[in-house]
């Protein structure tokens, strides 16, 4: 990408003034960003309608919800994005990986095929994980345009950005996670000035 810095391995954080529907108050882990476009997964918006047991059943994976609850395991599903809403991607710690896993940072990977669900059901998957339904997708030049703030985009389209960490991507949720991500991005931007 000539003159454009790839945002893969970073998080995009919606500005407080953003009113962009699905992306309002969102934290997005960027998996890939290049000349053809970008994609990632929103990691802070929990779904109250989609449940992990439904995903496991749809994938044909035997899953003992009662056993998970007994061990206090988390099992929420997150709204990963408005595109391909039938696809599930699991963002996870790199203590587990499959051949199809995309390593985003040294500590964070993303797997979009059934082996991760089977491993989770058997308690052999990653220690820290978050399942997301759907993707956030940008066409060629779209994310770069949003970040530029140049017409047809405006400065309101610009995302706050900083390096993805396990803490920012895989802990907390909702507005609390979004606010922590804002704080981290602002702190990072200030540090770059000095």
The largest sheet is:
9 strands, mixed
- Could you give the order of the helices and strands? EEEHHEEEEHEHEHH
Termini separation:
27 Å
CATH topology: VC0467-like
CATH class: Alpha Beta
Helical proportion, percent range:
25-40%
* pLDDT < 50 runs, ≥5 residues: none
- Domain count, please report it: 1
Average pLDDT score: 91
Number of helices: 6
CATH homologous superfamily annotation: VC0467-like
Q: Main attributes?
A:
VC0467-like, alpha+beta, globular, 9-stranded mixed sheet, 28% helix, 9 strands
Summarize the structure.
With 194 residues, the protein is α+β, with helices and mostly antiparallel strands. It has helices at 52-59, 65-70, 114-121, 142-148, 166-170, 174-193, and strands at residues 10-13, 27-34, 37-42, 77-79, 83-93, 102-103, 108-111, 129-138, 160-163.
Structure, described:
The protein is of the alpha+beta class and 194 residues long. It has helices spanning 52-59, 65-70, 114-121, 142-148, 166-170, 174-193; strands at 10-13, 27-34, 37-42, 77-79, 83-93, 102-103, 108-111, 129-138, 160-163. Strands 1, 2, 3, 4, 5, 6, 7, 8 and 9 form a nine-stranded mixed sheet that branches. A hairpin with a 4-residue loop joins strand 6 (102-103) and strand 7 (108-111). The protein is globular, with a radius of gyration of 17 Å. The two termini are 27 Å apart.
């Amino acid at each position: 990408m000539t003159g454009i810095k790839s945002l893969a391995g970073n998080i995009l954080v919606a500005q407080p003034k953003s009113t962009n529907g699905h992306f309002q108050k969102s934290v997005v882990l960027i998996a890939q960003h290049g000349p053809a476009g970008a994609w990632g997964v929103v990691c802070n918006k929990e779904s109250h309608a989609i449940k992990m047991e439904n995903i496991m059943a749809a994938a044909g994976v035997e899953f003992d919800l009662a056993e998970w609850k007994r061990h206090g395991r988390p099992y929420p599903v997150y709204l990963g994005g408005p595109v391909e809403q039938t696809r599930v991607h699991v963002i996870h710690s790199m203590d587990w990986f499959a051949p199809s896993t995309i390593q985003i940072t040294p500590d964070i990977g993303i797997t979009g095929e059934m082996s991760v669900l089977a491993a989770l059901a058997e308690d052999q998957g990653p220690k820290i994980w978050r399942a997301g339904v759907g993707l956030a997708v940008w066409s060629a030049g779209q994310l770069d345009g949003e970040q530029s703030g140049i017409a047809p985009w405006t400065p309101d389209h610009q995302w706050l950005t900083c390096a993805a960490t396990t803490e920012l991507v895989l802990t907390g949720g909702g507005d609390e996670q979004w606010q922590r991500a804002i704080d981290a991005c602002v702190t990072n931007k200030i540090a770059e000035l000095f």
